[in-house]
TrEMBL record, chain A:
Protein name: Sugar ABC transporter permease
Ranges of residues in domain ABC transmembrane type-1: 84-296
Keyword Transport: yes
Cited InterPro entries: ABC_transporter_permease, MetI-like, MetI-like_sf
Annotated transmembrane regions: 21-42, 90-109, 121-138, 169-194, 215-238, 277-299
The organism's taxonomic lineage, starting at the top: Bacteria, Pseudomonadati, Pseudomonadota, Alphaproteobacteria, Hyphomicrobiales
Family designation: Belongs to the binding-protein-dependent transport system permease family.
Keyword field contains Transmembrane helix: yes
CDD domains in the cross-refs: TM_PBP2
Compartments where located: Cell membrane
Alphabetical list of PROSITE patterns matching this protein: ABC_TM1 (PS50928)
Keywords (A to Z) from UniProt: Cell membrane, Membrane, Transmembrane, Transmembrane helix, Transport
TrEMBL record, chain B:
Record flagged with keyword Nucleotide-binding: yes
InterPro entries per UniProt: AAA+_ATPase, ABC_transporter-like_ATP-bd, ABC_transporter-like_CS, ABC_transpr_MalK-like, ABC_transpr_MalK/UgpC-like, Mo/tungstate-bd_C_term_dom, NA-bd_OB-fold, P-loop_NTPase
GO terms, molecular function: ATP binding
Entry similarity comment: Belongs to the ABC transporter superfamily.
Protein source organism: Devosia nitrariae
Protein name in UniProt: ABC transporter ATP-binding protein
Domain ABC transporter: start-end pairs: 4-234
CDD domains: ABC_MalK_N
Record keywords, A-Z: ATP-binding, Nucleotide-binding, Transport
A Pfam family that the UniProt record links to this protein: ABC_tran
From TrEMBL, chain C:
Cellular compartment(s): Cell inner membrane; Cell membrane
Family: Belongs to the binding-protein-dependent transport system permease family.
Protein name: sn-glycerol-3-phosphate transport system permease protein UgpE
Function: Part of the ABC transporter complex UgpBAEC involved in sn-glycerol-3-phosphate (G3P) import. Probably responsible for the translocation of the substrate across the membrane.
Taxonomic path: Bacteria, Pseudomonadati, Pseudomonadota, Alphaproteobacteria, Hyphomicrobiales
Domain called ABC transmembrane type-1: residue spans: 74-265
CDD domains: TM_PBP2
Keyword Transmembrane: yes
InterPro entries listed in its UniProt record: MetI-like (IPR000515), MetI-like_sf (IPR035906)
Quaternary structure and interacting proteins, as annotated: The complex is composed of two ATP-binding proteins (UgpC), two transmembrane proteins (UgpA and UgpE) and a solute-binding protein (UgpB).
Membrane-spanning intervals of the chain: 16-38, 73-97, 109-133, 145-163, 184-206, 244-265
UniProtKB keywords: Cell inner membrane, Cell membrane, Membrane, Transmembrane, Transmembrane helix, Transport
Topology relative to the membrane: Multi-pass membrane protein
Amino acid sequence: MTTLVGVDAARGRRAARAGWWSRWAGLAFVAPFLVLYLWLMIYPLVSGVIMSFQYKDLLSGTSEFVGFWNYEDLSIDPIFIGSIFNTLRFVILTVPAFVVLGLLIALALNRPTRGAAIMRTLFFGPHVLSVTVVTLIWKTVYLPNVGMIDAGSTALGLGPLSILLNPDWALAAVALVTVWWSIGLPMMLFLAALQQVPQDIYEAARLDSASPLRILWTITIPSISKMIVLVAVIEVVLQFQVFGQVNLLTGGGPNNTTRSMVMFIYQAGFQQWQAGYAAAASQILFAIMLVAAGLQFWVSRKPAES
Amino acid sequence: MAAVDLRGLSKAFGLVKVLHDVSVDIGDGEFAVLLGPSGCGKTTLLRLIAGLETLSDGEIRIGDERIDQLQPGQRGIAMVFQSYALYPHMSVRANLAYGLKNIGTPANVIAQRIDQAATILEIEQLLDRKPHQLSGGQRQRVAIGRAITKSPKVFLFDEPLSNLDAALRARTRVEISKLHQQLGATMIFVTHDQVEAMTMASKIVVMNAGRVEQVGPPLEVYRHPATRFVAAFIGTPQMNFVPVNQTSENGGWLQATLKDGARLDTRIATSAGHASPVELGFRPDEVAVDPDGALKIEVEVVERLGDRTLVYAHLSDGTPIIYQDHSDSQVQRGDRVGLRPHLHKLIGFDGSGKALHPELAA
Amino acid sequence: MAKLDPQEPVFSRLSYWLVIALSLCWLIPLFWVLGLSFKPNEELSYGLGTVFRAPYTLDNYSDLIRSSQLGRWILNSVVVSIIQTVLVLIICSIAGYGFARLEFPGRRALFVFVLIGLAIPRQAIIIPLHAMFVDLDLHNTYTGLILPHLGTPFGVFLMASYFRALPRELEEAAALDNASRWKIFLTIALPLSVPAQITLAIFTFLDAWNDYLWPLISATRPEMYTLTIGLAATQTNFDQSEGIGYLMAQAVFAGLPMLILYLIFQKYVLRAVAGAGGR
């Protein structure tokens, strides 16, 4: 019996070691990522906050603590305030278009035909192009006098519109490019949601002799209402970060009407080398994004049925 | 030597205790069935033996070896899962070989073991298919094959028949029994289906709410249920339970008075000193139709099954009664019938649910 | 192509034809650019309308291959995108599995901590990140272009939710088959996660290939430009450049490979996008 107990004890120790290993083995799996995450996300995030309270000139390399000075400056900087409003306007221009147009295209293409598949591929296609290719394409469309739009408007007797040089229209022109570029995302998300709607609901509705429009309003839309909200929130988050299109198409002009928040940060940080000032602007952008992300989390958490 | 010895097993998930001090001895080569309703802890018990859950208390031995601290793979067991858990990206052959490869078994031995298992289960022609190309029954065979190739000391089955259709289930029951005889290995089989338990087990472990209610061979569990729970859980149709209003003695035997005043004689000894029963139980086939019988019932539904007739009725106080009649029975809905339970089959149940058994007929 | 059910309601048919019309509008800019890229630059200076008539030429493309750094930029983009994709797949699969299936002290709290990272926009950390990389002397290197993307939690989140949805019994069966934790991951969980790997690979590759802001800041020497940045550099002085035909040939040259890749893998790309939204 004693030997048995002895064996058990030895085994117990070995098991305890195995237990210790299995307790921490999981941490070994996540450690590489955690190191990168801490180093490349969290540390910059924290040092960005600190930087926003500093006067930091990257060219001269000077830095000193200045409290809320950067934030106070931002609050009276007409260009920064303007960039917030431009970004908001841009979001208001694009997000409803993404939701409504994306939904309409998805509704029309939610069928198992080959033609629908081809068009799905087509609408999503521009999404794989980089922003610089997209702007290169659209620059020739918008080119003053000789571009496609101006050639058309001249032919119609309206004369050249030079949209990108027009303070009233430049941002809308950028929004149009953006919709062309990434309508595929909301379309696919809506299609995915539409395919989740059980077919028998439609069949039941047809047996109840509901008209197609009534089915759309009373069955389809309510069934995917969660996705509609989710798409709206996702697009708000994405479009708040608009940068490439405006930087390449208009450079923030004409008359600062298209300068976005990210573009402001980029220019403050990497053209004027005012890192502290740019970092402070980043924090304000981050705060806005946090609200939107919180909204997204809240929406995706909510059960589909009310 | 592959007896399985469970001593004082307890398991809690957080604050919820799902097993309370479970002790069961399963002999070498025995076919033990863990039987109980869903949520009774039978699957948890199986997973504790497999090492997929850790014990809160107690110990598990296989043969002379204590295994509850070992990794699942080192316990000398194989398990057939309810979902079969075949590796979907591997061929049947690779599924069977996986466990052996992991312990460095030489390739020729692996091939030999796979051939053996495939022959036993008649799955030779399936070896190069993927699991998704197999029917439910074939998958089930492969899952058993995967267990066989490891030549484990103990086989564990977690409701492996529940995903099969009725006909296949009946056939597979017979095959698993044959396999058990062929291999002579210890098998532990979890199910909620009493037919599986009755037909396959050499020992049934009836569980309820994390406790063992009774351990015994199938017929013993059927004939001498230790508790009201076991009596009610085993047997279809279910045992009848009649509430007892008052008890008295009649020649050394207990006599029960029912709510409607009817008196039932029993062969439960009053001298045994146990508590008096609050209920009497008898099985639907342990009763005679007799106009003078103590139980007066009114018939509600008659099921004619061909070889016999099942009659669903109730006492005047509403207590439901099911009894079995011969196949030519003329009984009809609305009939009033008298029943006389067999004297030696009437079982009493006391307030705690413990069974009071009658003396065996001489 | 568009075979229509005669039973179909007018409303549905109408919407279908409207979408066909809209899809043609979507194509126009692409064909416009393609056409321009085959036009001699001198002729285009009289007006872009000349695109509708001959002569056409391949000169723009041959100029492109002979004179520009486009080849180098494409190489940079390919190297950066592929290495980044492979590293993200490896790191996120391992970490996702750890969070999904392994028990260790503080797992829940750590996962929440990582999820918070989903809400951090890259723009919010780009200033300090730039300063960090200056100190480490990593700008104008492949490492400098790749590293910032390796800390993003999206992949971990994606893989963790996929691993969590795999049937647990498979891994339990493997444990009973004497497989170690690492072996279970490598031989069972990882092969079964291929659909999620494809999704993550597509997102990562697209993100790396199309990234604009970070390479714009980090790669300042033309030989380290990615394709995206290289093309951006050529179009800043759009009007005074070598000519619109030449620029459009660049656009085609840069965009076409992605479009072809997309057409080949469209099934996976569209499935990935649709699937990611379901989460």
